[in-house]
Amino acid sequence: MAHSLVHVVDDDPAMRDSVGFLLDTAGFEVALYRGGTNLLATLPRPARGAVLTDIRMPGIDGLELLRRLRAGGHTLPVVVMTGHGDVPLAVEAMKLGACDFIEKPFNDEALLQALRSALDRAGPAEAADPSLQEFIRRVGTLSHRERQVLDQLVAGGTSKEIGRALDLSPRTVEIYRAKLMAKTQATGLQELVRWAVLAGLA
Fold first, then answer.
1. Which of 58, 89, 121 delimits the end of a domain?
2. What are phi and psi of 109, to 5 degrees?
3. Are 53 and 9 in contact (CB under 8 A)?
4. Residues in domain HTH luxR-type (predicted)?
5. pTM of the full predicted structure?
6. What CATH number does residue 60 fall under?
7. How many CB atoms neighbour CB 120 within 10 A?
8. How do residues 162-194 score in pLDDT, each as one tens digit?
9. Which end of the chain is more exposed for a tag (fewer CB within 10 A), N or C?
10. Beta carbons within 8 Å of 177's beta carbon, 6+ residues apart
C-alpha cells in the first residue's frame, strides 16, 4: 500500500533497526533515519506516509523536528515515541500537531495500532470527533478534586508530586486517579493525555 510508508527517526541504531524490522514484518514500507536532519534533507514534496520519531535526540529533537516539518508545509501525521514520564513533552508534541504519542518501552501491537490510526487519519483529529465530544462531556462529570488531579496528571505530575501540590497522600491521589479514569473511560494515561490535549484541556 502506497500510504503505509513510515519514516522512522531515532538516533539509537538498535531501536531504529528493531522498529524497522517490526514494521517491515507487519507489512509497512519503512524508511529509516538516524536523525531529524536526515529526514528533513531527504523528504520529498509532497511527502506520503507517516513519521514515527523519538522525542529525545541530539541536535534536532522530536519537538524541533515537528516544528520544522509544519513550518516547511508538511502535513504528514506524526507519532512521537517518549520515554517513561515524559508526559509534559508528549503534551507539547501534541500541541505542535503530533497526532499521537507512545511511551517506551511499548508493546508491538500498541505501536502498530497507533501508526495504522495515524495513516488512516492522515492529519490531526477533528474537534468534531464524536468520541472527543463524549470525552469532554465525561470530564464535566468529574468532581472538583478529580478535575484537579486530571489537570496535574496531564501536566506530567506523579502521584507523589500531585499529592504534595494538592495536600493529599499519594494513596488518595491514586484513588482519585482511578475514579477519573473510570469516569472518562480512558484506557490509560496515554489516552487520557491525548484526549485532554485534543479537547483543549492541557
1. 121
2. -65, -35
3. yes
4. 135-200
5. 0.78
6. 3.40.50.2300
7. 10
8. 999 999 999 999 999 999 999 999 888 888 888
9. N
10. 149, 153, 159
